[in-house]
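Record pair follows.
FIRST:
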Amino acid sequence: MLHLSAAVDQPSAYDAGSHVELARLAERGGLDFVTLGDTFGRPGPDALAVLSRVAPATGRIGLVPTVTTTHTEPFHVQAAVATLDWVSRGRAGWRIDVSTTEGEARLFGRRHAAPADELWREAGEVADVAARLWDSWEDDAEIRDVATGRFIDRDKLHYVDFTGAGFSVKGPSIVPRPPQGHPVRVVDATEGHARRTAARYADVALVRAASPAQAAAVRDELRSAAAEFGRDPRALRVLASLLVDLGDGEHAAEPGHGGGGPRQTAQGPLYRGGPVDLAELIATWHTDGIVDGFHLTPTEPRRDLERLVNGTVALLQHRGLFRTFYPGSTLREHLGLARPANQYAVTGGTS
C-alpha cells in the first residue's frame, strides 16, 4: 500500500480558513494525512489549535500538527493530542519535535538549551508517558449511569507513576482514551539523534533523502532498530520527505529530478518539474521497495497541492498504485496500523 501525505504550512497565513481549504483539497485526493509545522521560534498560530479547527471541516484525512516536547509539560501535550483525536473522530497524529536553541529556551526561562541527543532521549520519554496516559483510561471506563450517579468505573482508571530524567507523571489522564487508542506518532528521522526515538516510538518516520539508496539505508536502519526494541518492524511506516515545485507544469523534470531522484538543497531534497515525472518518481521508489510512501511539502502551497492532487495523485490512481477512496475512518486505518491494546487492561494494572 502506497502512503501519501502533504504539508499545509503557509508562513503568512493567520486564519484557519486557508488551512481548511488545503486540507479539503488533500482529502479530495485521498491522502493519508496533512502536517502543519510549528516551533517556538516563529510567529504564527499554534499548529495543534489550527488543526483542531480544521477537524470538523474535514471528514477523513489525518491531521498531524508538530508539537514540541522541549519546555512543555508532557501531561498537557498528551491531553491536547488526545483531544484532537476526539474532535477529529480518530484522525489525529502528533509530529514529535525538539527545541535546540538558546533563544527558544529563554522564552520559557526554565533551563538552557541542551544537546540534541539529550533532547531526543527526553522526547522518547514523553512519547512513552503519553502512551501510558492514553491507556490510563480503559475503553469502557466511562459508565455515565444517570440512575446511580456513577460517571466512571474507578477500577478502570490507572496511575502511570512514570519517572523520567527530567519529569515525573502520576496520572491518570484527564481525557478518556482516544478513539485510536494511541494517536499516530510521527518523527522526522533524517538526523541521527532522532532515529533511536523514531525506531522505538514512531508509527511513521519521515526521511529527507535525495537518492533511493540513501532512503533505503535509513529505512533498513530504522526497521532493524525497531526489531531490537521488540517491535514488529513492518509496523513502522517510512516515508520519503520531498519539497515539490510543480510550477513548471507538464514540462519534463530538470536534470537530477524525475525518476533519477530529487536534488539536494539547503532546505532538503527538492523535486522541480511536472506532475507526471513526480508520479513516476513516486511509483519507482515505492514499487522498488525503497519507502512506504512520501511526505510532500509544496513550495507554493495552493498551486502545488492542487497540481499534486489533480495531476500526480490522479495518475497514480489511474495506474492502480494509490487508493481512490478511504477504506476506513481513522488515520491508523489509512496507514494500515492496528489499534494498540491497552497496556493496563492487558497486564491487569491497578489504579
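SECOND:
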Amino acid sequence: MNGAIDESALRRACHTVLPGHRQPTPAQTFAAMAAWCEQHGIEHDVYGEGELIQSLERKIAALLGMEAAVFCITGTMAQATALRLACAARGSQLVALHPTAHILKHERANHQLFGHFTALPIGSPHRPFTLEELQAIADPLGAVALELPAREIGGQAPSWPELTAIKDHCASTGVHLHVDGARLWEAAAGYGKAPAELAAGCDSVYVSLYKGIGGLGGAVLAGRHAFVEQAREWYRRQGGNVIHRTPYVVAAAMQLDARLAAMPAYFRRTQWLFDALRRYPLLRPNPDQPQANLLHLHLPVARETALAIRNRIAREHGVWLHNQVHHAAMPRTSYTEWYVGEHLLALPDDAVHAALAAWHHGLEAAQ
C-alpha cells in the first residue's frame, strides 16, 4: 500500500508526464460535469430512459454504422453478454479469440464460471490471429471475438486486407463476429478509416466510454435492433439496471467529440515517436511500426531495475516516463505500455528527446 501511495505522489510531483492524458482531480471533473449539465439542461435518466443516454446511444450507433446501441455499466458485462447471446442464437458455445484477449486475462474466468460460453484461444500470443488460423478450426463456432487493436501485444491489429477477409469468412460461415473495441477509435486512426468502416461487416461492437474518451466508466454495445434489445434485457438480469447512468454518460458525452477529433493527431504523434526512438536503441518498440497510438517499449533490464530508473528520473528531473512495468519472457528484461495522448501531443520535441535520452542513459548505466 505504501509503495503505491509513494508512486502516485511521485508522479504528481513531476512537471512533465509522458504517457496518456492529463488526469483532472475529482473536484475538477465534477465541476466540469456540473457546468456542462447546467449549460445543456441535463436531466437524469431513470433506469436508462431519458434523452441524454438515448441520444448518446444513437450517436455511438451512427458513428459505428450500426442499427442500435445500448449503454452498459461495464465492458466486462457488455462483452460477456454479447458473446453469450451470439452463441445461444447459433447453437454453439465456442468463441474463438486471441490468447491475450481481455476476457481471458482480466475477467476472472467469468465466461466459464457463469456459463456464458466456452473460449477457444487461437493463434500466437505475440501477434494477431490470421484468417488461415481461423479457417483451421474444425468445430462449429458460435462467435469470433476480435480485439481492435490488441492491447496486450502493443496495440497490434490485422492488416486491412486481413481484417476484411476475416469479416468475409465469418459472414459466409454464419459466425457472429464481435469486436472488442475498447480502443476502436484509436484503431480507426491507425487504419486511416472511419469507425463505421471498421465496424462494417461485424455483428456487434463494444466501445469503452472511459479508456480513450476519458469518462468515468461505462461502455456501449452496438449491433442490430433485436440483438441490442436482447442485451438490454440481459443487463437487467445481471444487475446492470442502475437507476441513474447520468454521471457516466455526462462524463463521456461532454468530451466525446473532442477526443474523437484528436485521435488522428495522437496517431501522427505516435508515428513521430517511432522515428524518434531510432536514436535510442535500448528502447525497443513493439510493434516495429505504429498501428495505433499505443505501443509497448521493451527494456534490457529487469522489472525492478526499470522501476528504479523511472523513479530516479522522476525525483531528479521531474519527468514521469511511464506507469506500470511488466516482466518480459527473457530473464532481466521487462516492458512497459505507452498510450500516446494529450501529454506527448503537447510536449515539445526537444523535451521528448531529453526525456528519452535520460531514460536511455539510465538503461545503459544499469547494464
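COMMENT: The two ends are 30 Å apart (CA to CA).
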